[in-house]
């Protein structure tokens, strides 16, 4: 089993979607997809006069932002991706973590309506994958009081750990983790923390690298961060400490 996380920057680009669809048509068994969409949530916040704010790469989510995040991520973003996949004949099933209580979260109250995945109904997901379906999961989880905004990298890592997946791939807009002007073919846990502390790994790359390490610790065998051209073998492989 394989989990592929798609970043929000990529989803906007028709050439990315075309490439993704071509790759999925060749891929058997089909993977499980988790998508982001942070860029679209920020755009909606700005449209209604809110300023996006992040702590440690996670969006501070007040009441109004929660509504926008749910409408965007579990709504237009998820359904647009599902529509593109379905048009291409792929058996896409679009859901968020609240559907069938697939992903429950632990609230992170200092961030508002943000949760960290705490339980995944892996049995249900495994069944769908075994049936040949292509689950497409939006990063909204279920917690006390209802719907929570979840960082999509954390969502993907939790699902990959629960399945467990043999491989978790973070598809993003850079070819891998860069340090000293080059893409690193691999990166160990301790080195990753040094690069985070030094500010070389920053912003949205922080939750991605940390989620990668959590997935490895939870038993996912292989985790990579790459762009679409590295989907099969490229990018940066994140390695747990030997
Ligand atoms: N050391 C690094 N190497 C590569 N990218 C980095 C690094 N540090 C920060 N980044 C940033 O992380 C971004 C990817 O994270 P993010 O924007 O959250 O992507 P996604 O939407 O795919 O989750 C890159 O576009 C880049 O600007
Ligand atoms: C809590 C939190 O930060 N949630 C994210 C969910 C979307 C996401 O992670 O999108 P990308 O993968 O495109 O960055 C957000 O609101 O931006």
TrEMBL record:
Catalysed reaction, written as an equation: N-acetyl-L-glutamate + ATP = N-acetyl-L-glutamyl 5-phosphate + ADP
InterPro entries documented for this protein: AceGlu_kinase-like_sf, AcgluKinase_fam, ArgB, Asp/Glu/Uridylate_kinase
GO biological process: L-arginine biosynthetic process via ornithine
Cited Gene3D superfamilies: Acetylglutamate kinase-like (3.40.1160.10)
GO cellular component: cytoplasm
Keywords: Amino-acid biosynthesis, Arginine biosynthesis, ATP-binding, Cytoplasm, Kinase, Nucleotide-binding, Transferase
GO molecular function: acetylglutamate kinase activity; ATP binding
Stretches assigned to the Aspartate/glutamate/uridylate kinase domain: 2-227
Primary localization class, coarse: cytoplasm
Keyword Cytoplasm annotated: yes
Enzyme Commission number: 2.7.2.8
UniProt record similarity statement: Belongs to the acetylglutamate kinase family. ArgB subfamily.
PANTHER family noted in UniProt: N-ACETYLGLUTAMATE SYNTHASE, N-ACETYLGLUTAMATE SYNTHASE, MITOCHONDRIAL
HAMAP family: ArgB
Protein name: Acetylglutamate kinase
Organism classification: Bacteria, Bacillati, Chloroflexota, Thermoflexia, Thermoflexales
């Amino acid at each position: 089993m394989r989990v592929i996380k798609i970043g929000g920057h990529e989803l906007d680009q028709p050439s990315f979607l075309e490439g993704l669809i071509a790759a999925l048509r060749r891929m058997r068994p089909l993977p499980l997809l988790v998508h982001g969409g942070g860029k679209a949530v920020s755009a909606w916040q700005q449209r209604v006069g809110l300023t996006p704010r992040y702590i440690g790469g996670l969006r501070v989510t007040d009441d109004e932002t929660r509504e926008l995040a749910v409408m965007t991520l579990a709504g237009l973003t998820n359904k647009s991706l599902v529509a593109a996949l379905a048009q291409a004949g792929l058996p896409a099933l679009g859901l968020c973590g609240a559907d069938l209580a697939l992903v429950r979260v632990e609230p992170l109250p200092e961030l508002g309506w943000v949760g960290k995945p705490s339980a995944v109904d892996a049995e249900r997901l495994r069944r769908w994958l075994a049936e040949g379906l292509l689950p497409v999961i939006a990063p909204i989880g279920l917690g006390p009081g209802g719907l929570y905004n979840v960082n999509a990298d954390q969502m993907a890592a939790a699902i990959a750990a629960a399945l467990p997946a043999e491989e978790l791939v973070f598809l993003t807009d850079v070819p891998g983790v860069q340090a000293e002007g080059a893409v690193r073919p691999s990166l160990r846990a301790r080195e990753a923390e040094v690069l985070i502390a030094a500010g070389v790994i920053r912003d949205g790359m922080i939750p991605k690298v940390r989620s990668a390490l959590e997935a490895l610790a939870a038993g996912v065998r292989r985790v990579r961060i790459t762009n679409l051209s590295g989907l099969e073998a490229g990018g940066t492989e994140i390695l747990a400490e030997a």
